[in-house]
Amino acid sequence: MKYNICLVSPDKSISNSTAEVVKELGDDLRCDLEIIDGNVKTAVQNVKPYIEKGVDAIISRGGTAIALMKAYPQIPVVAIQIEATDILKALRNIPAGTRIGFISYSEIIYQYKTLEEILGVQKIKFFRLFHLGDEDKLIEKYVCDAKEQGIEVLIGSIHVRQYARKYHLGFVFLESGKGAILRAIREAASMILVRNHERDDFKIISNIVDYTLNGAAVFDRDGTLQKWNPAFASMFLDVLGKDWQEQIPLIFDKSRLKDVLKGESIRDNEIIQVKNREFAVIWQPVWELNSIVRVIAFIQPVEQLQSYVQSVRKKQRGSGLIARYTLEDIIGKSVAMRRVKEEAVKYANTLSTVLITGESGTGKEMIAQAIHNLSPRKHGPFVAINCGAFTESLLESELFGYEEGTFTGAKKGGKVGVFELAEGGTLFLDEIGDMPYVLQNRLLRVLQERAIMRVGGNKVIPVDVRIIAATNQALEQDIKEHRFRLDLYYRLNVLRIKMPALRERKGDIALLAQVFLSDLNRRYGRHKQFDESVLQYFAQQEWKGNVRQLSNIVERLVLLSEKSHITMNDVVEALDIQVPVNTEMAEDIDIKTMEDLLSEGKNYGEIAEIMGVSRSTLWRHRRKEKNKQIQ
User: Fold this and answer.
1) Residues 83, 107: contact at Cβ < 8 Å?
2) Domain 84-175 falls in which CATH fold?
3) What is the predicted pLDDT for the residue at 502?
4) pLDDT for 585
5) Is the CATH number 2.40.10.350 carried by domain 3-81+180-189?
6) Given CA atoms 355, 361, 363, 366 in this order, what sign does their dihedral have?
7) Which of 33, 143, 246, 280 is least enclosed by beta carbons within 10 angstroms?
8) Is the dihedral of CA 78, 83, 89, 90 positive or negative?
């Protein structure tokens, strides 16, 4: 594809040299080049018809080039540069001993000074011009000064010649050589290629802007609005009315646009207020080499964004970030479990941190999920992480996330940590006592500031998360042995729930076993039942693994027993018990618990069910206790 270039020549010598260059290049020129006459005063008008036809670039010299740049900023204008050889050529035509004056711009004067140093040419008097657009008065003043100083010949442009003649001074025109003209033509062709490339890029950006569902607006490197999509127009038409385009400077602050175009804070989301509505704005820069050539503002009404967040929350519930257990799922009628449930109900309606303690297998995560489902955050995510299941570095990235390229193997785009995943919901930190000591300090800061920073990141991210922590360790002892921070302990231990061990709630053992059996029968299509002796045996065991251990034992019995009734023989075989079991052991009755329940108005039938024993056993222990008191 050939380009159209217009060369505006202020002097016949430049026109002739350009024609020679065009002839010498022939087919290698790769552009249609039109040569027209024009100086500083006439060039703008002379070139206008060519602009209207469609010209890709303009070439000219000195003040003429400057005038064209100002008149036609939308067209690339290339100035023909004066070279050292052009200056030497001008000097060659001046007799030795002549007093010479040089009126030109700084870049040309510096070239001559270089020639003075390298070649030792004659030192001459300089008069420096400035790119002001109208140098007439300055040139005339310089010519007058030159004459007063005894200058005989002036070197300069066509513009200088008219004043040299006026004041009867000799003049030598500083011609542009063919090499300088050729370089100008090639520079113009390069500028056209870059401009076409930018135009193609802008077409792509325009298509992206047109088809994006959010509002989008494109600003050029000067902060001028170039393009917007229908969603953007509709958004501000509703708020500002028909003249919304005139109010763009009010919507997008000029100083903010300047910062964005410099690359400052471009990754920060921001909220702008237009009348009574708020809009979320994200800036996306478009880079060319190492500079920003334009920026795109993606805009969305805040209420729309909030609706989107709610939709995401619903999807999260389908992706596993939910609490499955409620208070009704937690089995137990014992006094200890009733107390736990009462505390859970009280704590649920607060935003305070909860610390759940208890042995492994007592159901700490279940009660944490129940608290979440009772709380105002029940529609938000529930995210759980085991603090003892990772190395220090892995746990840090799991908790806080990381930025792209932070370490070898890091995911493209980085990773969101559990604090961000739990935004608007609850974060359950299980086995908090096993958290590495170094990370405890960072967790403490997050709890204080309610903000995190990703690993390898430099941006503070606010988080709205409720913390529920759990441990099976004695944190007080860990503090004494410097394995757990005292200040973190106080941050976590605001509200506390102690999950009772199964041996401390013996009345719930038979109930739990029956519930587990019912679930397993349904899962495996069985119809098993427990003999009473088995339930009595269960009630006498220590259950060091607590509810989890009981659940596993019941599953083993369901799968291994061959008859519909699970008997003590099945228990002996499944548990590999060597000593015959005495199934007639008396139940261990907690007299104080029985008295407390009686004082609450419970009858013996209700108490027997709560404590998991028969009514006759209650009567027997009751009489025995009364006999002791009489004696």
Assistant:
1) no
2) Rossmann fold (3.40.50)
3) 93
4) 41
5) no
6) positive
7) 246
8) positive
Look at residue 337 in the predicted model and tell me its pLDDT: 93
The pLDDT assigned to 612 comes to: 62
pLDDT at 347: 96
Task: For 541-576, give the DSSP string.
Answer: ---TTHHHHHHHHHHHHHHH--SSEE-HHHHHHHHT
How far, in Å, CA of 171 to CA of 399, rounded? 80
Residue with tokens 């065009």: 22
Label residues 65-83 b or e (16+ Cβ within 10 Å = b): bbbbbebbeebbbbbbbbb
Does the domain at residues 212-305 carry the CATH identifier 3.30.450.20? yes
H-helix or E-strand spanning residue 400: helix 392-400
User: Which residues lie closer than 8 Å to 140 by C-beta, 6 or more apart?
Assistant: 163, 166
- Mind giving me the DSSP string for 415-457? B--HHHHTTTSEEEEETGGGS-HHHHHHHHHHHHHSEEE-BT-
**Which are the contacts of 620, defined by CB distance < 8 A and separation ≥ 6?**
none
Quick one: pLDDT at residue 118?
A: 65
Numbered ranges of CATH 3.40.50.10660 in the chain: 84-175
Report the top-level CATH class of 327-498. Answer: alpha beta
Q: Which regions of the chain carry the CATH code 1.10.8.60?
A: 502-575
pTM above 0.70, yes or no: no
Are 354 and 368 within 8 A, CB to CB? yes
| Torsion 580-581-585-591 (CA) sign | positive
Chunked mean pLDDT (size 10), the chain, 631 residues: 82 86 80 85 88 86 82 85 77 83 74 67 72 72 90 84 89 82 85 70 62 77 81 80 76 78 68 82 77 82 71 55 89 92 94 94 95 92 91 90 75 83 92 92 92 88 93 93 93 95 91 93 91 89 92 93 89 71 49 74 72 65 64 54
The amino acid at residue 417 is G
Every domain of the chain with CATH number 3.40.50.2300 lies at 3-81+180-189
Q: What does the alpha-carbon distance between residue 265 and residue 563 come to, in Å, rounded to a whole number?
A: 72
Counting Cα atoms < 13 Å in the Cβ hemisphere of 225 gives 19
The CATH code belonging to domain 502-575 is: 1.10.8.60
Q: State how far the Cα of 260 lies from the Cα of 223, in Å rounded to an integer.
A: 9
Taking each helix axis from N to C terminus, what angle separates 392-400 and 437-449, rounded to the nearest 10 degrees?
A: 10
Q: Are 562 and 528 in contact (CB under 8 A)?
A: no
Write out the residue limits of the CATH 3.30.450.20 domain(s) in the chain.
212-305
Distance CA 304, CA 363 (A): 40
Tokens coding 456: 């390898």
